[in-house]
Amino acid sequence: MNAYSQSLAPANTPLRETLSLDGSWEFRHETDREWRHAKVPAHWQACFEDLSVSFGSATYRRTFTLPVEWSAREIAIRFGAVSDLATVFINGTEIGRHEGGYLPFEFVIPSALLKAENTVEVLARLPDAHRNESGADFAEIPHGKQSWYGPQGGIWQSVLIEARDPAHISSLRLDPIWPEARLDLKAHFASMVAGSLKIEIIDPQGMPVFTGNIPAAGHTFKHSIQLDAVAPWSPDSPNLYTITTILSADGVEIDSRQESFGFRRFEAKDGFLHLNGKPLYLRAALDQDYYPDGFGAPPSLDLLEDQLRKAKAMGLNCLRCHIKVPDPRYYEVADRLGMLIWSEIPNIETFTPASAERLRTTMEGILARDGNHPSIVIWTLINEDWELGCARRPNSGNGFPTWSTGCVWKTRYGSLSTIPPASRTSTSRPTSTTTTSTERRWIGARSGTRSAANSQAMPTGPSRLTRKPCARGRNRWSSPSSASGVYPILPVCAKRTAATPGGWPMVPPGRMARPCPRASKPVSANSLLRKSLVISVVSSRRCSGINT
Asked: What confidence score (pLDDT) does residue 28 get?
């Protein structure tokens, strides 16, 4: 089963004890003959040069000693994130499986399996283009920019063993209301309770502003707390409050949980964004959240703090973390130092019932883990307009959009076109009926080999926005040759080793494509404002992401 929590950090309170399993683990990729050692947390692609673009399965293994004083408590193993499919074993016995490479999960370890010395093994699988025994392939799992910058597999966030009471606080959802100075909270318990919940709230100056003891019974607790005037949270004044909840049963304290939160109101009205009742001019940058040393994982808290301070020094007040779920410390730093965050769900490549369900589960997990952060003001449901251009056709067989007469497609650059009947896998080029091109880039449904065979047909027409050839034998976006309707699966910066009839460079089999580091296409201000087509909870014509 999956057990989502806010993060690993809030659970570490005086009534819970933890044992970190971060550090060196034995590691063996499916292509290895011998065991070697890998750092945890980290993607295996960041640890080993020979596995830098590898998919497949890898086994992690290490031992841990269980403290004697934990023998009467519930013991759980908790993972910040494992990409993408994880199977966990304790002393040779499987205790659970989890799917999804960005979110936390945990398994309670049966007491009968535990010894003084224990061995934990984690089988981590990152699906490639071939459907595996779990029914997944890369195209149908949320993966974001892994199709651009390379795969990311393995245990890439912290792992710990936790000792706690079986009737613990499993989640705490906070809803601060500004300017009313009211806090609505909802707690979930892991099992039935009959006792009370002590609540203490500390203001940004460290002074207590509320203390109360409220009866609690059942699996769920709801309560509203009215405070006096509160200090609102904003990038200029990141005022954070701290709430501590202590669960008691039969007069004995059995569990506690602590969270930070902020009072703020973010809304769109009259064509403008407003923060705490005042118009806000959003100065945002798109953050790919990739690092020289950690690849898709930040190497340290200091680095996260340093990059955010530099972003503020540049005059930015918002970062759009692009189609990935970041390390939870990313949001903690934004809360504490003051930065608005545009959060996004990682995209898939092929929209099917299975991938739709994975997207829904991922979005629910994002909200469960990150819903208490005042820094997050926009939640992206899907990037640009991928797979959402057409209404569903009743006779499309699988119920998903296909090209059809009169179907209007939004393009990557904001232009519109009408596509005549054609198969999505056709090698002939449909004819655009508008005066602008529809250089809609179809991300291929398979990773790995990049060739003309898995590219998609594109409409013709004069190119409105193009990329010109790069130096050093590289290539950017540009208009295709009139002799060929085949576009490559990705714009690449790999050196040309093969080409389509239109002269587009292709990536050799087994190599990952990378986007060019610099843009050379001329763009106008209006085209930039139209460039990113994002469906989000908060939208306004004054708020537009620039997606490069």
From this structure: 98
Do 368 and 332 meet the contact criterion of CB atoms below 8 Å apart? no
Say which residue, 359 or 446, is predicted with more confidence.
359
Would you say the CATH fold of 169-261 matches that of 9-164? no
pTM: 0.72
How does DSSP assign 36-53, residue by residue?
EEEEESS-HHHH-GGGTT
Least confident of 160-169, 223-232, 411-420: 411-420
Could you give phi then psi for residue 494, rounded to 5 degrees? Answer: -70, 150
Distance of CA 272 to the CA centre of its chain: 27
Sort 286 into a burial class: Cβ within 10 Å, 0-12 / 13-18 / 19+. middle
Evaluate if residue 473 carries a pLDDT over 90: no
440-446 CB contacts, 8 Å cutoff, 24+ apart: 440/389, 440/409, 440/411, 440/412, 441/412, 441/487, 441/491, 442/487, 443/147, 443/349, 443/386, 443/489, 443/490, 444/139, 444/349, 444/489, 444/490, 445/139, 445/349, 445/350, 446/129, 446/137, 446/138, 446/139
Rounded Cα distance, 265 and 168, in Å: 31
Question: Residue 143 has which token pair?
Answer: 């993966």
**Which amino acid is located at 327 in the chain?**
D
pLDDT, one tens digit per residue, over 109-125 is 999 999 999 999 999 99
What mean pLDDT value characterizes the chain? 74
pLDDT digits (tens, 9 = 90+) for 257-268: 999 999 999 999
State what percent of residues in the chain have pLDDT above 70.
67
Confidence of residue 227 (pLDDT cuts 50, 70, 90): very high
| Residue boundaries of the structural domains of the chain | 9-164, 169-261
Buried/exposed code over 31-52 (b: 16+ C-beta within 10 A; e: otherwise): eeeeeeebbbbbbbbbbbeebe
> Could you say which architecture CATH assigns to the domain 169-261?
Sandwich (2.60)
Give me 471's structure tokens.
């130096």
In DSSP terms, which residues pair with 408 in a beta bridge?
418
The answer regarding whether domain 9-164 maps to CATH 2.60.120.260 reads yes
- Give the pLDDT score at 71: 87
Compute the distance between CA of residue 11 and CA of residue 161 in angstroms, rounded to an integer: 11
The one-character DSSP state at 163 is: E
pLDDT at position 129, please? 74
8 Å CB contact between 115 and 155: no
Euclidean distance between CA atoms 109 and 115, whole angstroms: 11
Burial class (CB within 10 angstroms; exposed 0-12, middle 13-18, buried 19+) of 514: middle
Check: CB of residue 454 under 8 Å from CB of residue 489: yes
